[in-house]
Sequence to fold (690 residues):
Amino acid sequence: MANALASETSPYLRQHACNPVDWRPWGEDALRLAHERSCPLIVSIGYSACHWCHVMERESFADERVAQFMNERFVCVKVDREERPDVDAIYMEAVQAMTGQGGWPLNVFLTPEQLPFYGGTYFPPQPGRGMPSWMQVLEAIAEEWDKRADEIREAAERFRGRLAGGAQLQPSASEPDPRSLDTAVAELRDAFDWQHGGFGGAPKFPQAPVIELLLAEGALGNAQAGEMALRTLNAIAAGGIHDLVGGGFHRYAVDATWTVPHFEKMLYDNALLARASLRGYMLGGDRGLLDACLDTLAWTLREMQGPEGGFYAALDADSEGVEGAFYVWTVAELRETLDEDAEAAIAWTGASTEGNFVDHHHPLPGLNVLREAADASAQAAGRPDAQTAARIKAALLARREGRVRPALDDKRITAWNALMISALAETAGFLGVTEVENVDPTLANTLLDAAQRCAELLLTRMRDAEGRLLRTFDGETAKLPAYLEDHAFLIEALIALYEASFEERWLLAARELAEETIARFADEQHGGFFSTAADSQPLIARRKDLEDSPIPAGASSIALSLLRLHAFTGQARYERHAAATLSLLQEIAPNHPSAFGHLLQALRLLVSPGFEVAIVGPAGAERDALLRVVRERLRRNVVLAASPGDGTPSAVPLLQGRTPLNGRPAAYVCRRFSCQMPVSEPQELAALLA
Fold:
């Protein structure tokens, strides 16, 4: 019989609905039952694309004997970390403090008061490699609880104060130092892999917020920062972590060379890496980066878009119970599929009869993750012409569609959808005024339409009866109160939509949401923002989650958004809240830039104010020429407003009082609201922004 998870909307929770474990979702029912039985809770946290979560489910949670013991001695709770990042953050912090490491699946034991007292990640069904079996852990915990429950409760209570995350930080007493950004770049330089790109060794993660920080610093003149970003982006685009056949990016590489990925595809990685690839192209002109951006967005629209316009959360790493089976190829398969193009494809991708991917669960030897050659000269020698490459990809994609597909996590998460809106909108804004060889000129409209449709979904159907933003949507039902990251990423996305379309409704919506976020999430006492709203279900700690890994923290995002809104509106309190947020970390972040890439971008905008650009006048070629100056290269220190072009008055403060120049479109360039004389020639605008 199905357990209490059968009625949940999360695919991850439903995967456990037929376990013999009496799983319950996190909530009052489970907590009340633990108090009534005076027994510990097992809280098991994971997500649908997590390989080892599936393994532990098959090995242990489907075992009748194990399940019977769990049901008799514990209240068992399953949590989808993507639905409940607040629960996950608290207990991940606890397990990392207890054991020195964390990850998923996360299995933590709590007192009935929700306090953690033991935990770990994956536990095998049999002891080995220095790990106890899951059954041994269960038996030991149950025995200890029987003997000394009161002592366990006392010790757990003393641990409570460590679970508040950044909520314990105090604001800095000093002014932020512009030189701290140079310190951050120097720290990243010391950790940089100059041979393969990226940071550190295997496994290697893309670290998109760090890449975007380096791109932004590169655009401001730090050549070495730009070089690190571009080397990394090019290595990722050419590596097996980038799906050469279908587009998009896998989660991370298991090696240092970006060759063999962990094959899950997450919406947030693809949004961030598409945006970073676009920005890399705008900085360095590497066409491969633009192609990586566009094929990622094409994959997103083809495979990850729901019928209502929202975007699904993830594709699993496994299919048919084997990791990567959907994506790897033998040389024989390539020859069978490609006929006369086979040898060109083999030279291009470096495929071999020995293969570069070993999986003992896969029935075929000689498996290849397809990737471009590792160095630039080999890439150039092996890459086929554009027409042949397109033909190879199309044939392989058609063949691959006949395979068993990885499982899809079809929930739509507000924060991740907002990240994808930003990527779509930025790309649409760039392509809207920039002609690129072999890119359909109507693509900008396609991408902008997709971004707007998704934004409309989030602003309408992703609301509760009181109008508050919600976290998840399954195509029919939206539920769970939204977190800071949902609000902050959506504000960033709405600003990006405005700058791409100049439809003022998006900027007005961003301001409304910013006001709500300040009212419900801001810490008026110490500065910054809590990760949960004041009216959310209380947990044992109200945290401030601050690290930009693997995605930007809500705090970093809201700081950057408020600084940009301040530039559009002149509202001083936006800047004040942003500065108070940055003050909590301005001394820590530059020395640990790998954890604070997005926050450091906000800090740069605070200490080195950028340009406010207002373009007014009738739509047409002359206005497009001015827009092109702003959009065709990477300018992360600019906010851009433009009049609707039809003569109607604007509600955007930055545009008010601006008029065309002698009947021609004009650009007004300001810095900290001190403005230059308006100009109508593109070269004059470029000089003002130099």
